[in-house]
Amino acid sequence: MPRLAAVVCACLLAATACASSASRADRPLVRAAEGTMTSSSATSTSSSPLTTVAPTTSTAAVAPPPVPGVPGGLVTPRGIVVPVLSQTGSRSVVRTPCGAEATVVGGRSVTGATVVLDPGHGGPESGAVGPNGLTEATLNLAVTEQTRRVLQAAGVDVILTRTAEYEVSLATRTELATKLRPKAFVSIHHNSDPDGPRDGPGTETYYQIGSPTSKRLAGLIYEEVVRTLSAYQVSWVADRDAGAKYRQGEHGDYYSVLRRTAGVTSALAELAFISNPPEASMLAQPEVQRVEGDAVARGILRYLTTNDPGSGFVEPYPRPPDRSAGGSSRPCKDPPL
Ligand SMILES: [Zn+2]
Asked: How far is the CA of 166 from the centre of ligand 1 (A)?
């Protein structure tokens, strides 16, 4: 079967989670770590044993909090959402999508949001690519926009970390989340590199270690997405430990979008496997993108409005600790602000 050969997962520095099994012990460790953004964590750990360690939390590399008197975010005149570092009149010093500082004149200040949605990857940083050419970046954005529409129709105040096809660093994504202090931050992805076939969707949701609210959010999104996708008859694939779970890294949560948002209830969702030809064909359909987005929105709404516990919780099997190539060879290019 040539299907995996056709898959390219461009998990470069800014990637978060397009292949949860990228660093599985039974295959070469060739990709940069998905979960880390800081070069300081680039230390090789190739000699580390594969052990399950007790989950621990960490405050390392947490994105900066809001600055009193400064709006957390700005929708620039060109519609790019960025964190605000300082503001004088109509001039805002902002963090660009690539993580630089820039001055923007005008735009609309955003003081906060109830929900921040994070469409994974973007632009040349495509994430996983399906055998049909569908990229995670494009698919994640389409699904996220549908989630936004449903939440906004329900009266929920929503901000997206990415609004079009451009690259956004993990630092900028998480800084926006910590400055806007939402009740829920959800990063939306599609998966690759499964363990094998499964009799149902291989959906995975990740929660922040030690956070009961994050766990509930992840469990509710898992429940809604699996219920929705189970209506489709395709040859599903999955990791053996598909479900709602955590992933331990060297410095707390493996995934940067969960680690750097400490203090904000966050979850990361791998909705289905874009690398699997039958799933990729299905995911290319706008109708399926819509129902996925609807399902994520229902999970978030239930988190906000009920005390439902969620479901699908599993204990993850041991994976190597995070490792990083320390950076991308391809420079990040900011969009016009
Ligand atoms: Zn991804």
From this structure: 15
